[in-house]
C-alpha cells in the first residue's frame, strides 16, 4: 500500500509548490480535485493537462485520480427523474474520465452528496435505476481509458443515497462492470456504527480506493481512530493500492496537517 494526499488541502498554493512539498514529505501519489484547475473540467486545457503530468513526473509523484468531481456543477444529478439531466450528468462523467486519463490518473471517486440526493418524488429503487443508467452508459469509455469509477458511501448527515457499504455494493452489483467499484472512506465508515474491519471485509472484492481521515473529516493523527486495525484489515483482503489522505476539516495549518499525517501513518504501514 502506498500513501497519497489530496491536492485540495493546499488551496492557494501553485501546482509546482504543492507537488514539490508533497514529494519532499515522502508521499508517493497525489489525488486531484478538478476544481483546483477550473470550475468545469471541460475548461481545463490540453496544455494544463500536459503540465500536470509533467510536474508529477518531475517530482516522481503518481497521479492517483480524482475526487470532488461534481462540485459546483449545476443541473447535474445521478438520481434526477428527468432524462435530460441524467444525460448531462453522464456526459460530464465522461469528460471527467477523459481528464483523469489525460493526466495519468486511474481512479475517480464519486462522492458529491448534493448531486446524488434523492428528490422527494424519487423512490430508493428509482434512484438506483437512474444512477445505474448514468454509470452504465459511461463504463465502456472508462474501460477504454483505463479508469475505474468508485461510488463513495457517505454518511446520512451528508446524503440520503448510498449511505453505507451495503448500499454501495447494491449499486456496484447492479452495474456489474469491472470498471465500476466502491471505496472505503474512514470518516464515512465511522458513521455506520459498526466495526470498520467488518465494513472492509464486506466490501473486500470491490474496494478499489481508500480515503484516510478521521471522524468529522479531520486528518489522520489528529483524532482517536485506530488506523492500525484498518491497515491490517486492508492487508488481509489483499488491498495494495493507494491510501489518500483527504482532509475535510483542518485542525492545523496545511504544512503541519500534511506532515503530521504522514509521520503518523508511515510507521504503521512500514510495520505491516
Q: What can you see in these coordinates?
A:
The chain has 272 residues and is of the alpha/beta class. The chain has a single domain, classed as TIM Barrel, CATH 3.20.20.150. Helices cover 43% and strands 14% of the residues. It has nine helices and eight strands. Strands 1-2-3-4-5-6-7-8 form an eight-stranded parallel β-barrel, surrounded by six helices. Strand 2, helix 2 and strand 3 form a beta-alpha-beta unit. The longest helix is centred in the middle third of the chain and has 22 residues.
Topology:
Layout: E1 2-6, H1 15-25, E2 29-32, H2 46-58, E3 62-66, H3 83-102, E4 107-110, H4 124-145, E5 148-151, H5 165-175, E6 180-185, H6 186-190, H7 196-202, E7 207-212, H8 227-236, E8 242-245, H9 254-270
Parallel strand pairs: 1-2, 1-8, 2-3, 3-4, 4-5, 5-6, 6-7, 7-8
Q: What keyword list fits this structure?
A:
TIM Barrel; 272 residues; alpha/beta; 9 helices
The level of helicity is 40-55%
Total individual domains: 1
| Distance linking N and C termini | 10 Å
CATH homologous superfamily annotation = Divalent-metal-dependent TIM barrel enzymes
Going by CATH, the architecture would be Alpha-Beta Barrel
Short summary:
By secondary structure, the protein is α/β, with parallel strands linked by helices. The protein has helices at 15-25, 46-58, 83-102, 124-145, 165-175, 186-190, 196-202, 227-236, 254-270; strands spanning 2-6, 29-32, 62-66, 107-110, 148-151, 180-185, 207-212, 242-245. The model has no long low-confidence stretch (mean pLDDT 97).
Amino acid at each position: 500500500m502506498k500513501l497519497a494526499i489530496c491536492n485540495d488541502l493546499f488551496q492557494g498554493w501553485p501546482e509546482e509548490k504543492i507537488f514539490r512539498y508533497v514529494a519532499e514529505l515522502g508521499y508517493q501519489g497525489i489525488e486531484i480535485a478538478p476544481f483546483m484547475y477550473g470550475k468545469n473540467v471541460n475548461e481545463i486545457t490540453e496544455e494544463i493537462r500536459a503540465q500536470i503530468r509533467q510536474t508529477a513526473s518531475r517530482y516522481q509523484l503518481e497521479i492517483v485520480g480524482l475526487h470532488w468531481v461534481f462540485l459546483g456543477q449545476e443541473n447535474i444529478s445521478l438520481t434526477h427523474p428527468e432524462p435530460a439531466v441524467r444525460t448531462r450528468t453522464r456526459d460530464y462523467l465522461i469528460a471527467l474520465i477523459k481528464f483523469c486519463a489525460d493526466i495519468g490518473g486511474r481512479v475517480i471517486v464519486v462522492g458529491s452528496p448534493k448531486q446524488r440526493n434523492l428528490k422527494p418524488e424519487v423512490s430508493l429503487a428509482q434512484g438506483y435505476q437512474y444512477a445505474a443508467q448514468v454509470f452504465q452508459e459511461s463504463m465502456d469509455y472508462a474501460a477504454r481509458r483505463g479508469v475505474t469509477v468508485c461510488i463513495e458511501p457517505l454518511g446520512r448527515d451528508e446524503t440520503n443515497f448510498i449511505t453505507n457499504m451495503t448500499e454501495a455494493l447494491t449499486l456496484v452489483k447492479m452495474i456489474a462492470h469491472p470498471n465500476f467499484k466502491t471505496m472505503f472512506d474512514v470518516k464515512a465508515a465511522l458513521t455506520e456504527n459498526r466495526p470498520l474491519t467488518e465494513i472492509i471485509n464486506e466490501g473486500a472484492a470491490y474496494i478499489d480506493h481508500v480515503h484516510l481521515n478521521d471522524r468529522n473529516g479531520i486528518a489522520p493523527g489528529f483524532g482517536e481512530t485506530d488506523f492500525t486495525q484498518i491497515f491490517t484489515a486492508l492487508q488481509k483482503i489483499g488491498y495494495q493500492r493507494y491510501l489518500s489522505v483527504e482532509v475535510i476539516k483542518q485542525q492545523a495549518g496545511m504544512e503541519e496537517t500534511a506532515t503530521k499525517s504522514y509521520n503518523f501513518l508511515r510507521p504503521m504501514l512500514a510495520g505491516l
